[in-house]
Amino acid sequence: MSDSSNSPLDLAALRQRIDTIDSELMRLISERAECAAQVAHVKTADDPDAVFYRPEREAQVLRRVMEENPGPLHREEMARLFREIMSACLALERPIKVAYLGPEGTFTQQAALKHFGHSAISLPMAAIDEVFREVEAGAVNYGVVPVENSTEGIVNNTLDSFMDSGLHISGEVVLRIHHHLLMSSITRQDKISRIYSHPQSFAQCRKWLDAHYPHAERVAVSSNAEAARLVKTEWHSAAIAGDMAAQLYGLEYVAEKIEDRPDNSTRFLIIGNESVPPSGTDKTSVVVAMRNEPGALHALLEPFHRYQVDMTRLETRPSRTGAWNYVFFIDFKGHVDQPGIVSVLEEVRGRAQDMKVLGSYPVGVL
Amino acid sequence: MSDSSNSPLDLAALRQRIDTIDSELMRLISERAECAAQVAHVKTADDPDAVFYRPEREAQVLRRVMEENPGPLHREEMARLFREIMSACLALERPIKVAYLGPEGTFTQQAALKHFGHSAISLPMAAIDEVFREVEAGAVNYGVVPVENSTEGIVNNTLDSFMDSGLHISGEVVLRIHHHLLMSSITRQDKISRIYSHPQSFAQCRKWLDAHYPHAERVAVSSNAEAARLVKTEWHSAAIAGDMAAQLYGLEYVAEKIEDRPDNSTRFLIIGNESVPPSGTDKTSVVVAMRNEPGALHALLEPFHRYQVDMTRLETRPSRTGAWNYVFFIDFKGHVDQPGIVSVLEEVRGRAQDMKVLGSYPVGVL
Predict the structure, then answer these.
(1) Ranges A336-345, B7-16, B307-316, most confident
(2) Is the pLDDT confidence value at A274 over 70?
(3) Residue ranges of domains in chain B, CATH in brackets
(4) Is B125's Cβ below 8 Å from some Cβ in A?
(5) pLDDT (tens digit, 9 = 90+) per residue, A39-59?
(6) What residues of chain A lie within 8 A of the CB of B2, using their CB?
(7) A133, B46, B171, B208 — which has fewest CB within 10 A?
(8) Closest-CA residue in chain B for A126?
């Protein structure tokens, strides 16, 4: 029951309470920044080139925020605010520079901002190997590259780049991705005869398209953002793209969530020059080279099974060097600093032609 | 003096302190969101279509943050965090939709994000009158358009759009803008023979260009972001653009801050459907039509002088209707709800052929 005569009083009291909260928030954020500055001070006293950004520490903070968030804000939104607070505190010392697979408006940019916050400086690159090169050259601190899509599987360029690189994986970002059929203000919805999208998105929505637009021409373009941009000028065209591209180009939704698999998601890796200590909930990625012999794969996997290490992904790629016949990319739960994992990897190394640990890193929080 | 043996202890203590602060921050942000939800509840009880976003209230909060910020974070960074916290609290009820003059990577996008935070949904438009149209149609809550540049003066399209529109100005954003000469990784710095930029940026750097690159071809393009994009593929070209475009396209700096005037800045207006109550430090914009008679301008300005109202800007534009000869756009300090301002405007209205108040709004905080 509301009485408009007492509303102004309620509002005044609420606003006074908000002002008090804000003063307290400001005091605490400042004290947090002060603590972060002291952490940096302690670190640089020992090592002038010390790294201030600690992926395992940030993962722990965000995990706690997600677990303990009391509401009413969604826990993702609360974690986003903490991401920004940490980003600001870190930038006070030295802003993080991040290269990602561009162009803007893509999921990879979204993943980069989600992981590093807006106080980081982010740079789009034209290709995955450029991202690797910028990180290796020290022009940026970290890179963000797509590595896995639940429908299409692995992003091959990224795996190939890892085979040539000495970089470490220092984190992962998982984006749940929804695809929509989008049109512009000039589109005639009953006359859609052409649909633009990235080949991966077409693959992820194939059944839906076969059922609803069997006769429309499917034109593959370099990104969903590009697809969204194109339909702005063609009355007979639509695009398949996500919410971000829809917002960027002000498009309308013809149909929402048209992906064939409801759990559609894309995984991105953060790559950097340093290895990451355990955060408590970690994953490890290794690449293993095996000769193409009968039983080779079984021999490779057996130690994981025996030590009850939880494998989360296995990908096979033909070797490019000729020296190896096959390489396997394996992800499993655990950190290379854990004794059990050390034992497994020793056994695997003994059976393989070659093995390389790409990195142990916190399981994606956000 | 640092002793590496006690550093881990220091670090552990600092991190424990940060954890305690984070718990407290989370509790306070949640309570703030709860209060904001209650404010929304009180408002919708009286009016189901009530507007939750109050520009004057947000300006007051940010002003207080800027004044009271104790450091070590810069006050702009602290205000940015509060902007995000308010943006998140507001989005809990109903996310704000904002149209801006696109494309992405432009200063107008930067102004929109600076003013509304990242929980707002922002949509780039191809032209200034499209921004007006989207706000008028109710497709978005607010629009962001450039209105003034300290070197080039007024952005004429924006003023023309105001003459036809019933929208109110509900805020302003001022960006201090630096221009840099930028090159890509393939540019041969000693062979730069072509420079891309927006015509306004060329105008703002003319003297510097005449001194340093008198023979380079100057190619005007639609935005500085476009200029930055173009130099990625031409070894003999450079671009004039700001930090954001440099970051977006991963360009290197040939020369920094090349603008001829060190106080170079651009002003943007926030346009909406509602008028804004006083925030305590406000500005008012009016448009006045006068016949082209001797002494007309003096007659128009005299009341401002007599009431000691501080005029901050005066622009003259030829009337497009034919009915008026000239229109003047005037900005002054104060709010139309203040008695002194009411008196001035009454006198001005008596002397003018026509007068329209475009809006009273908080002086830009960030």
Answers:
(1) A336-345
(2) yes
(3) 21-93 (1.20.59.10), 96-175 (3.40.190.10), 180-263 (3.40.190.10), 275-366 (3.30.70.260)
(4) yes
(5) 888 888 877 777 778 899 999
(6) 42, 45-46
(7) B46
(8) B249
